[in-house]
Every structure is written in structure tokens, then in C-alpha cells.
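Deliverable D2.4 — example input (C-alpha cells):
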């Protein structure tokens, strides 16, 4: 591991990111159970059950994991600490959870007042987090590719949240413009998720995997081009220019595929050829990002109904798999780092989460993913996929908790343990 460029003296307390990670794992189990119970009632993504279940995954798992990662990565990789992080992280945590509960309950019960509560809580919380992160990241003097990608991601997170609130208003009979929900999805996926992941990759792939840097032209221009295409797409939606919408979406898909293939090439050519579960998950995620980009482009060109296919390929095969891999890198490193900072020098990253458990969890997940793909053609395989996915989700949560327990066990060896 190349530790150069890390700022290890401004990280938040260990419990801040771990609280978000453990909560994310709980939501993942909840997502699996809800889909198992309600799958037979869902025919398209517009059904209230489908919207509720989708947001258990996105607001519950994805957002908690990504917010927790930013709380840790911004101080360590960018070198700017979040101010008053413990208190504000708890505000964000509370708002995100209460808002998510209200959102899910509102859609499952069709109670409009709950949706209004959800809209208010989630909009305030996400806008606060986006502004809080933006102002923190903006303080750094080095406006490198990761910094600019992170800054862009916060802007699109805020815009996506505003569009999500506008989409919720539809259920109260207020329509601002057509395709609000679709625009919300596009801005969140490309502007928030993809922009954030690309910024993380610019640092993580060379640093943790001793691989070559990404091409300079990609690091300097990818966030700019994605931002311009999203602005073009949004303008085309507002003026109802369908041809421009399609062209923008195809171009965005091609950029995602290009980034994915570049990442795969960097991993394949890395200096340290030894593989572990996190490398396999990066390969897995990037392969599905490239595959999903082809599916997306084909759906746009031929007007295909690919909602469920993209949900599987991009939602589970790409975003979930990548977060899974990142957690297996971050939690051991984070645990070791905080223990070392407390002068517990016999802590070992390899003991935080057992490699054998990571491998087994990944294999079960990969098998479940194959059954999810099969379920696109044969619905009967969905329940087998969900059983396996639930087992892998439980193992992921268990592994994260084990990491936390290892920290709690080893921190007792700290010279100043128990002192205020």
C-alpha cells in the first residue's frame, strides 16, 4: 500500500463512519426481506412497493455507506477535516433515518402526510450534507481531479435531492415538468454516484493497489464532460427535446463504459499482481458498469423497457458490489489506523476481517447475482437469488461488526484508555 498523500491526523472519531456502515448493513437485510415479501406484487418501477423497496437500497444502504465513506475519506485523502463532525454527523444520521422511515412507510401505506414528512426531512438532510461536504472539500488548496469530482458530486447530490422532492410532490398532484422521476435518477446516478466513485478511484486504485495513475486527460476532463452532458440533458427535459435527451444519455453511458474499461486495465496491469477479494469486487463492479452502459445505450436507442435489468446490473452488480469491496478495504484500514493513532501498535489489518470470510461472502453474492440475472427471464429464480443475497448481506454486516469489535477489544491496550 502506498500511504503517500494521506493526511492521517484529521480523521473523525472511529464510531462516526462505523455507525453509518453498520446501519447500511441493517438496511441491506431489510431490503432483501422487503423484496422477498413484496416481489410478487411489483409489475413495474412505478408501483409504490417498487419505489419503497428501491429507496430502502438507495437511501438506506447506498446513502449511509457513501456518507460514512466521505466522512472518513475527505479528511484522510483530501486533507480537510469536517468541522464539528460528531454533532453534525449525528444530525445527518437522524434526519436520513427518520426521513427514510417516513418515505418507506408513506409509499407502503399510501399515506400522503408521511410522504410530506419524508420530503421535508430528506431534502433538508441531504442538502445540509451536500453543502457541509462541499464547503469542507472547497477549503483545500489542491484542486486535483478527486477534489473536483467530489465537489461536482455534491452539487449533483443537491440537485438530485431537489428533483426527488419535486417527484414526491407529484403524489400530491403538483407537477413541475414531465419526467421528473427519470431526471432525478439520471442526475443521482451519473452526477452523484458515478462522479463520486470516479473521484475515489483516482486515489484508491493507485494507492491501495499500486496501479498506474489514470490518464491525465481523463482525470482533468471526465467530471467536466459529465457535468456538461447532465446540464444538456436537464435542459432538454425542460424544453421536451427528446432527441437531445437520448443523445445525452448515450454519451453518458459511453463515458461510464470508458471509465470502467480504463479501471479494469489499470487493475490488470498493476505492479502488485496479488489478488484479494476487494480486487475481485472491483473487477466485478467495473465489468457490470461497462455491461450496464451497453444495456442503457441499447434501451435508449431501441426504446426498450430495461428498468429491472438496469436495477440488477447497475444497482446490485455495480454500485452494491463496489461499496462491498470498498468496505472491505476501508474498515480494516480504518480500524488499524485508529488503533495505531492510539499507540496500539500490535493491531493488524489482516485480523480485522478474516480473508476467508470475505471470500466466502463474495462467492455467495456472485452466485446470487447470477440468479438475479436469470430472474429477468425466469421469475422463479428470484427467490433463490434473494435467499443467497440475504445470506451474503448478513455476512457483510457480520464482518463489519467484527471489525468494530476488534477495534473495541484492541483499544483497551491504548496507554490512555479510559482517560478523559
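Example output (designed residues):
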Amino acid at each position: 500500500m502506498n500511504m503517500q498523500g494521506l493526511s492521517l491526523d484529521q480523521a473523525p472519531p472511529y464510531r462516526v463512519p462505523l455507525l453509518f456502515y453498520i446501519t447500511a448493513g441493517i438496511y441491506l437485510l431489510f431490503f432483501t426481506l422487503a423484496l422477498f415479501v413484496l416481489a410478487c406484487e411489483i409489475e413495474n418501477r412505478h408501483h409504490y412497493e417498487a419505489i419503497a423497496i428501491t429507496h430502502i437500497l438507495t437511501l438506506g444502504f447506498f446513502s449511509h455507506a457513501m456518507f460514512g465513506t466521505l466522512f472518513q475519506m475527505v479528511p484522510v485523502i483530501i486533507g480537510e477535516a469536517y468541522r464539528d463532525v460528531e454533532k453534525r454527523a449525528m444530525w445527518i444520521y437522524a434526519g436520513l433515518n427518520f426521513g427514510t422511515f417516513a418515505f418507506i412507510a408513506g409509499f407502503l401505506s399510501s399515506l400522503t402526510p408521511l410522504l410530506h414528512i419524508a420530503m421535508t426531512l430528506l431534502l433538508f438532510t441531504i442538502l445540509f450534507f451536500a453543502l457541509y461536504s462541499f464547503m469542507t472539500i472547497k477549503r483545500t488548496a489542491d484542486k486535483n481531479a478527486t477534489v473536483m469530482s467530489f465537489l461536482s458530486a455534491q452539487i449533483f447530490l443537491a440537485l438530485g435531492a431537489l428533483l426527488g422532492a419535486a417527484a414526491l410532490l407529484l403524489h400530491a398532484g403538483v407537477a413541475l415538468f414531465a419526467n421528473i422521476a427519470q431526471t432525478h435518477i439520471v442526475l443521482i446516478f451519473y452526477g452523484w454516484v458515478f462522479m463520486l466513485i470516479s473521484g475515489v478511484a483516482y486515489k484508491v486504485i493507485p494507492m491501495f493497489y499500486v496501479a498506474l495513475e489514470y490518464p491525465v486527460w481523463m482525470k482533468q476532463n471526465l467530471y467536466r464532460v459529465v457535468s456538461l452532458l447532465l446540464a444538456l440533458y436537464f435542459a432538454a427535459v425542460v424544453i421536451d427535446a427528446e432527441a437531445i435527451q437520448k443523445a445525452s444519455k448515450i454519451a453518458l453511458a459511453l463515458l461510464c463504459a470508458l471509465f470502467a474499461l480504463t479501471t479494469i486495465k489499470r487493475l490488470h496491469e498493476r505492479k502488485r499482481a496479488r489478488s484479494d477479494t476487494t480486487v475481485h469486487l472491483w473487477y466485478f463492479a467495473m465489468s457490470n458498469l461497462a455491461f450496464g452502459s451497453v444495456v442503457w445505450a441499447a434501451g435508449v436507442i431501441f426504446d426498450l423497457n430495461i428498468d429491472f435489468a438496469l436495477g440488477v446490473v447497475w444497482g446490485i452488480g455495480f454500485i452494491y458490489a463496489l461499496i462491498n469491496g470498498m468496505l472491505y478495504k476501508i474498515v480494516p484500514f480504518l480500524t488499524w489506523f485508529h488503533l495505531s493513532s492510539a499507540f496500539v501498535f500490535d493491531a493488524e489489518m489482516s485480523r480485522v476481517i478474516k480473508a476467508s470470510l470475505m471470500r466466502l461472502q463474495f462467492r455467495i453474492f456472485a452466485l446470487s447475482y447470477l440468479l438475479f440475472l436469470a430472474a429477468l427471464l425466469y421469475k422463479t429464480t428470484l427467490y433463490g437469488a434473494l435467499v443467497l443475497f440475504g445470506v451474503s448481506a448478513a455476512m457483510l454486516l457480520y464482518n463489519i461488526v467484527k471489525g468494530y469489535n476488534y477495534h473495541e477489544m484492541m483499544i483497551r491496550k491504548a496507554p490512555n484508555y479510559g482517560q478523559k
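The chain has a mean pLDDT of 93.
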